[in-house]
Amino acid sequence: MAKKKVRVEFRKNRSKPPRSNTWTSEFREHGYEEQATLGDERVRARGDLSRARTIITDDAPAEPGNSPTDQMPSVTTTDLLFGRVIKVLGLHNVVETASGEQYKCAIRRLLKNLHTSERSVVTTGDLVWFKPEANFEGMIMRVEPRHGNLTRASRKKEHVLVANVDQVVIVVSLVEPELKPHLIDRYIAVAMKGDLKPIICLNKADLVEHGNLQPLIGYYNQIGIPTLLTSASSGYGISNLRELLAGKASVFSGQSGVGKSSLLNAVQPGLSLRVRNVSEVNNKGRHTTTTAELIRLEGGGYLVDTPGVRQLELWDTIPEEVEMYFVEFRPFITMCAYPDCSHTHESKCAVKQAVERRLISARRYHSYLGMIKTDKRN
Ligand code: GDP
Ligand code: ZN
User: Fold this and answer.
1) What mean pLDDT do residues 129-137 have?
2) Rounded-to-10 torsion of CA 220, 225, 226, 227
3) Which residue puts its alpha carbon closest to atom 25 of ligand 1?
4) Would you say the CB of residue 207 lies under 6 angstroms from ligand 1?
5) Residue-by-residue DSSP string for 64-101
6) Where are the alpha helices (DSSP H) in the chain?
7) What angle, rounded to 10 degrees, do the helices at 260-267 and 271-280 form?
8) Per-residue pLDDT tens over the stretch 139-166
9) 178, burial (CB in 10 Å: exposed 0-12, middle 13-18, buried 19+)
10) Distance 217 CA to ligand 2 centre (A)
11) pLDDT tens by residue, 33-82
12) Mutational pocket test of ligand 1: of 252, 262, 273, 305, the residue with most ligand atoms within 8 Å of the beta carbon
């Protein structure tokens, strides 16, 4: 039987409607200045884990929604090619097939009429069926449903910047700037909220003795978050990182100065240079507005590398939702005496007991407390 992904309601009894976004001031107090992006260029991973989750079922129909991809016409795929939009240049979408051929595609008029709920029916990262024409041109006939979107709020509108991102490489440095484990936990939450798989990269391993980091690394790996030590300078850990990137669409995220550009270059030498050239000047030598684009990796897979996409923000997270981003709490949450336990002041809280019994890291628990406290002051 065919497997299908469907969205189902997720812990609805605990959800509250999202609040208005007054987050930035909270972040500032927590040393987040370096991460604030310019003006309306606030980028966040967007998902609806709080309200729904994706499950795989056998042949269950997907719930209808109102995004354009839900109203997509079905097409016969004979004579069509499948590919990924790697960049959008004005009216043209550059679509790359699995074999690496690029087609300059226009959008079928029928699809353009679906613009209503989102600004663009086709965006970077979209997986599309297109009709190939002469000279590597083509016509996009259908856009597949999206997952793992990076969005940007601009003039109060949500705008999908990159669709179908699989994972976020959370880059932190061990020194310069110093390691802030609580920040890692926030990034993990952002990634999970956006339906993106987190990977942690502890960079600048060449600068410090890192034997004492094993417990931290071991803990994250144990809860299912791949965590690795890297050095963009010495090349340490880079082949491991390359393996994690292969075949996936990834975005690098982290404070400035942690080594994101250096790591990209270490993974694929020459990458940063190329990124800068492509986004600043188009092939006619004119400057273009910087739009997101995907860079194909030699080892397979894509990297999102667009200034402003590198930094993710926590966005309209409600305290009740935060516990879901601490995967190791999950087995205990159901054992708390109160169904709406916040795992703070309550007696008979199974999460707190697990912290006492060292089944949950005290450091992670404190990250959790920090995150719900910030939320409550909203
Ligand atoms: P980004 O702002 O996150 O893109 O960080 P950059 O890649 O620009 O790196 C910031 C600074 O850290 C630069 O001076 C890099 O040379 C340096 N750097 C990056 N990675 C490493 C590393 O693994 N080891 C050392 N020693 N320095 C690094
Ligand atoms: Zn509890």
Assistant:
1) 96
2) -40
3) 204
4) yes
5) P-SSGGGGPPP---TT-EEEEEEEEETTEEEEEETTS-
6) 23-29, 109-112, 181-193, 214-222, 238-245, 260-267, 271-280, 319-322, 330-333, 350-356, 362-376
7) 110
8) 999 999 999 887 766 666 667 888 999 9
9) exposed
10) 26
11) 333 333 333 445 554 333 444 443 433 334 444 455 566 778 887 899 99
12) 262
| Closest C-alpha residue for ligand 1 atom 9 | 259
Task: State mean pLDDT over 341-365.
Answer: 96
Q: Which atom of ligand 1 is nearest to the CA of 236?
A: 23
Q: What is the pLDDT of residues 91-113, one digit of tens each?
A: 899 999 988 999 999 999 888 77
What is the DSSP secondary-structure string of 103-129?
EEEEE-HHHHGGGGGSS-SS-TT-EEE
Check residue 4 and give its pLDDT.
54
User: Ligand nearest 174 Cα, by number?
Assistant: 1
- Write down the pTM of the prediction: 0.75
Ligand 2 centroid to Cα of residue 349, in Å, is 4
